[in-house]
Automatic annotation (TrEMBL):
PROSITE patterns, alphabetized: TPR
Keyword match Zinc: no
Entry coiled-coil feature ranges: none
Record's protein name: Tetratricopeptide repeat protein
Keyword rRNA processing in record: no
Signal peptide (residue range): 1-23
Gene3D superfamilies linked: Tetratricopeptide repeat domain
Length: 556
């Protein structure tokens, strides 16, 4: 259940889940009653029963013989459910009723890839890539992402598209396909795409940046660094390049070089903050102190954001007293509210714990600030109590917050996580279900509860339904896809689990996803590849709980 990161996708199933979850029994529709079937399908969808929703929508599409929209919806739900047979039936109805659009071609390509009909997939992908607008190649890229079963199959298909000279002569398309090859960890394919892109766009810095990324991934950091150095002058003319260059240096384990890249060109609080974070990561206290001194000289005017930044850098330098003083200088306004939260944290770091807790409580009682800030003060106190290993104090802070706001979902969510850390799964479940009573479509709570049930209990089918509800609302969220893969693994559906976990890790390099992928690969007997993912997880977060459990379970 990693941190959330949205990946835009073309095949997004936007389905409202505002109604409460349906009971296990649904109304039986007559074969010719399309409206009843649609209603039953919606209830099944809201309850997270995607296979059942697929059948209802397919029945509705058949009953409403002229409705192309229902056939399209049935196709999308079937694809989301992984029911390729029903998807093929719904797609046939859609083809009979609707216009041959890029959306339909994308669905056809996705299904063909899933069914292993690579010739048909290639035909539809080429047709999409030859569309004159920018949508065609984007649909093709989305189909390759959502239709993949094995990275090597997608790699082969893209290679055949290159052989056919099908990729359009558009810079974003080449960047998109090159990035996909890199995320799939298909080094030969990435090298081929990038090499061709360099020939086509020899003076384009964004292609050079992609080339540097490809060199880094194949273990040629020196060559990548040389190429990045040639891009630095261009970053002065194209400021957004700075972030990309800095990312590549940081990914190579050179956060100081990344900070230096960010130092080129105009500076603002965002770039200064990024530089400070990178230098703190590198533990380069001298460079961080130099940046701190530079900003201190500019602090004569009371810029609230700059004062907050100076306090943050002082914390990086482990100077909590100075951090406290900067935060205390922040004048009124919203920044002052943020400063008060940081003041409490600084007091805690100074060992003045009673004052820290008192500062948080003063904010909790301050009717002059908005409810969101007061709720944040309860969450901060709970966090500080947790750091202090004061279980009773942590739960007391959360309980007081809920006494003031009985249905505040942020506080309920924090308490659910606190219960889960203490192995009180029943209590965690109760709090997450309280969230879903007031906000049935809360995907974070649906995902958290589904993942918790999959990970910590044997209630796998119930977990699957909860995760499927989240997937219906956000089918391209990496955290939710990871949870889906994990529950499939717990259900013993190993091959399906690997598909989903690989897809999640393609979308988001997260330590928890890597740990899950490593464990499933280990169980499948692919131990060398499993060790690779365990090592990647360790690099991202050596203390990740899923990683530690996986290492203990596998003995890797």
């Amino acid at each position: 259940m990693p941190a959330m990161m949205r990946i835009a996708a073309v095949f997004c199933l936007s389905l409202a889940l505002a109604a409460p979850a349906a009971a296990k029994k649904t109304t039986t529709a007559k074969p010719d009653d399309g409206l009843t079937a649609v209603m039953a399908g919606e209830f099944a969808l809201q309850a997270g029963r995607l296979p059942e929703a697929t059948q209802w929508y397919l029945q509705a599409a058949r009953a409403e013989s002229g409705d192309a929209g229902l056939a399209e919806r049935a196709t999308r739900i079937a694809l989301l459910a992984g029911d390729d047979k029903s998807a093929a039936q719904a797609l046939k109805l859609w083809q009979q009723r609707g216009k041959r659009t890029e959306v339909m071609r994308g669905a056809e390509a996705t299904l063909a890839l899933r069914q292993g009909d690579l010739a048909a997939a290639r035909r539809e992908l080429i047709a999409l890539l030859r569309e004159p607008d920018d949508l065609g190649w984007r649909f093709a890229l989305a189909a390759l992402t959502s239709g993949q079963r094995k990275p090597e199959v997608v790699s082969k298909t893209i290679g055949e598209l290159l052989d056919a000279n099908a990729l359009p002569g558009k810079l974003p398309a080449w960047i998109g396909f090159g990035s996909l090859a890199q995320r799939l960890d298909q080094k030969d394919l990435a090298e081929r795409i990038v090499g061709e892109a360099v020939k086509r766009f020899p003076n384009e810095p964004r292609i050079a940046l992609l080339h540097a990324s490809q060199l880094r991934q194949i273990g040629k950091p020196d060559e990548a660094a040389k190429l990045l150095a040639t891009l630095e002058p261009a970053s002065l003319l194209v400021p957004e390049l700075r972030s990309g260059i800095a990312y590549e240096y940081d990914a190579m384990g050179q956060p100081v070089a990344a900070a230096q890249a960010m130092a080129r060109g105009p500076q603002d609080n965002r770039t200064y903050g990024t530089r400070a974070s990178l230098l703190a990561k590198a533990k380069d206290q001298a460079a961080l102190a130099a940046l701190y001194d530079e900003l201190r000289k500019q602090a004569a005017s009371p810029d609230p954001q700059r004062l907050l930044l100076l306090g943050e850098i002082a914390q990086f330098l482990e100077r909590p007293q100075e951090a406290l003083e900067w935060y205390q200088r922040v004048p009124g306004g919203q920044e002052r509210v943020e400063a008060r939260l940081r003041i409490a944290n600084s007091l805690y770091e100074l060992g003045r714990k009673d004052e820290a807790f008192a500062a948080a409580r003063k904010m909790q009682a301050d009717a002059a600030i908005d409810d969101t800030a007061r709720q944040a003060a309860y969450l901060l106190e709970a966090e500080l109590r947790q750091k202090d290993k004061d279980d009773a104090g942590e739960f007391d802070a959360l309980a007081r917050g809920l006494a003031a706001w009985p249905d505040d979902n942020a506080i309920l969510y924090a308490r659910a996580l606190a219960w889960e850390r203490r192995d009180r799964i029943d209590h965690a479940e109760a709090d997450l279900r309280r969230i879903l009573v007031t906000e049935p479509e809360n995907t974070a709570a649906l995902n958290a509860l589904g993942y918790t049930l999959a990970d910590r209990t044997n209630r796998y089918q119930e977990a699957l339904e909860l995760i499927d509800r989240a997937r219906a609302a956000e089918p391209d969220d990496a955290a939710i896809i990871d949870s889906f893969g994990w529950v499939l693994y717990r259900l013993g559906r190993i091959d399906e689990a690997l598909v989903q976990l690989r897809r999640a890790y393609t979308m988001q390099k997260d330590p928890e996803i890597a740990a899950h992928l490593g464990e499933v690969l280990w169980v499948q007997g692919q131990k060398d590849e499993a060790r690779k993912y365990f090592e990647e997880s360790r690099k991202l977060d050596p203390e990740n709980r899923s990683l530690l459990r996986a290492l203990q379970k596998t003995g890797a």
